[in-house]
What we know:
724 residues; elongated; centromere; chromosome; Centromere protein I
Amino acid sequence: GANGWRGCARAGLNIPSFCFIGNAEMAARVSGNVKIRPRLANDDVEPLQQAVEYFTTVKERTPSNGNLHLDTIEGIAFERGLPPDVIESLLDVVMSARLVDRFNTRLLKCLIPASVVPECAVTNAISWMCTRKPSINVQVLFIRWLLTVFDLLDSKKQLHSLYGIIFFYLQNDKLCPYICHLLYLLTKKENVKRFRVKKLIDLQAKMGMQSNLMALILLYKIHAPEYVSLTCPRQLKNLQVSRSFWKKAIERVQKNGCRQLSGTPELVNITEPPMRKRKKKMHRELIPVVSSAPHLTELSGSLMQSTSFPLEQLATFSQLLDNFDRIEFPAQMGSLLRSPLLLHYINWVKDDTALLRLDFWLAQTLQEEFADCSGDSLQKEKEFIEFLNIIIRTQEFLQEGFSCCEDFAFKSLSLYDSSWCSSQILALLTRISPSTDVISFYFDPLMKLFFTSSIYFKCSVIESLTSLLMKWLTWHSVCVADLDRDIPNVLQSPQNVSLSGLVNSVSELVEFTARISVVALQMEAYSSLLLHFILNFYETVSDMYLKYSLPLVILPPAGIIYPALLSLESVNLNQLCHIMYRYRTNLTALKSLDLSTNVQIGLKVNRKTFQQYNAFMKTAVSCLWTSRNFEQDIHPMGIGIEYNLLAQTKVPDSLSSFTLVNHPALMGHAINFTQKGWPNGKKRLHAIQGKIWNWYVKYLYNQGLDGLKHFLESCIHTVSTSEH
């Protein structure tokens, strides 16, 4: 019968092309006798029936009254959409090439589904492609239409059976990009064969680094890494996503009130202001509804009749555990963004294919929906921010970034100002992966925004860089812990970054942050707020070895240490002391290692680092304790002043201007100490000496200045001994 070859395909048999010829013609003849029953308004049923019957019975190449009937079909299709049986009949007419290409093209463009697309219509169309009757332009247009309505197919089982036939069309240059996209959506592990990998690599050698082709090769490599020796870039720049005019038409049909199949995604046109009643649900409509494949939902309600658990019924965590082995990812991977249970599932199974499919969907959505969103419309910006927040929460939940978001963040930094979605763009930056291009791709455009924006944006940038550094270091520490316990590392870097590569990336990040921080402090008159965020960054930097197992020590520049040392805020001074204490602890631990261990861990600390730290430590102690700050500081950017110049200032007791008593950041504590100890006012600040000095130091420690306490206790004895 007409469906006999489908049974062979369903059984996995190879079907020769001549089998498609006879069956396709038979299907064409059968379709001419089918009575069309479109489910439309009563006024449109008869004209649509007449138009469809005309095209299904017209003789080859004789479109006498075609324009009139085609206008009827176009009017109904673009207003209300077409029912499944009409789409099946018209698609068969188009692919049989009985009409001229002008009519075939118009018919394809008006195939707007009102509900679902029957899978048999697609399989019949592919069988017509095997006859070589439709022109190459019609074939390209058909594949583009199929990609648009892919998630509206009522089933994909037979389409999966035709994987080998679809793969054959990769050799056509015009069809290749769209066939790659279609195969990307259809590929399963059992479809990956050696001969197909060889064909893809040959195509890559012939056509170069085509984005769609490289995405398919990367998917093959994830399924069968032993077959693919080609090095695939993790980030596929400028992924070719076909913009489809059918999508706009489907949106208009849905806005006109056409019923859509339960469980299929609603496509929302955000290029035009939506109705007020739908403003709060715009992100819900943009993200598809969680649903199983339509052919699964048509089965009986009993769960035992299907090997897969219907995702629509997944409501509790206990259901997830009970049906863990029966869950299959939906065809539309974007629906995972609205299901915490499925996010738990994808986080547990660690399916790289699923993550790659989700990344692919996000790339499409960001490019198609938000390519023209530049912040001109307040409603667009709200929708955009809401969607980005969902992506950010998903990344934080999975503890993994998406490469398409890295690309989007890079484009955003290059095109937009700091006032447009700044929080979201900076949040996306905290998930970029370490690479050699991180400076040129992200930091250079970020630096331009940084220096031309307000102090609050500068603080946000420093905070984002701190979060980015912590994520890199945390990933490294987990990998090192797994290696120490001989546990296979399940947190592989997407780019398989080596230790030296990570060290270089971290060094570039720290140096970049130091460079912009020094300039920003000068621009903002050494703001205490900005200095606080900068010191937060260096709290992480100071503990990279002991806390994160990274053999690297990078000291803050003098342009940060001295403003913090002379700060007017006790919080910043205490924070600096804590940082210097952690540096001392890490350097001491590194110094205790033997030479062989240093070589083994790739130690990136030299004698100059120890000398710089000792100089900074001596300056800090001279200021706070020994009252010799202006004499002993010899740093070019330090506070050393010759004695004759100090004398000319005529400042009384200038050498003790920055001790624990007279320091501007601690003077308030000193005054409070004297008022509490001597309410009658008999003691002044200059009386805090000897035994009272010791009482005052303990008083400071009790004020929560733990950083100051640890720093002084760790180094004051050594310095005092050397001074004496």
